[in-house]
Specification:
mainly beta
Length: 144
């Protein structure tokens, strides 16, 4: 009887862990001016506005909290307008972890290039591969 009760309690605990919603990490964006325009300060977007201003030729970055140990990662929900911006690449950077603890998060840094004047939207979703998104972040880019 005790073994049956213990296995039922363990099953309930595991099910509860599996049903937890994914973390909803904050996001930020920044831009880096092109070498031809190094004197211009980088454009930035706050967590609330999520607006990015860039000039053609600029590379800008969207930085999102993430935790690779959970299986969740950021992915493009929709392709941005390639006439205005293009996706360059992404990199996961773990947080410093001197104690070597398991489960420490980090950030994903997404790079985009401003191609031509116009407006574009970057829609990213946080999900496990093949799974439904747990959350979404949208950034609005103005290239001029």
């Amino acid at each position: 009887m005790n073994a049956r009760l213990l296995s039922t309690a363990l099953a309930v605990a595991l099910l509860a862990c599996a049903q937890r919603p994914a973390p909803q990490p904050p996001a930020s964006a920044d831009t880096q001016p092109s070498s031809r325009d190094a004197a211009r300060p980088p454009a930035a977007a706050s967590d609330t506005s999520k607006r990015i201003l860039a000039a053609p030729g600029d590379t800008f970055f969207v930085t999102l909290r993430s935790n690779a140990t959970t299986g969740y990662q950021w992915r493009l929900a929709d392709s941005p307008d390639a006439r205005v911006i293009t996706f360059v690449g992404k990199l996961y950077v773990p947080d410093p972890n001197p104690q070597r603890m398991v489960g420490v998060g980090g950030v994903e840094r997404w790079a985009f290039a401003a191609v031509a004047p116009g407006m574009a939207e970057i829609a990213l979703e946080y999900a496990r591969p093949g799974g439904p998104p747990a959350t979404e972040q949208r950034f609005y880019v103005l290239v001029r």
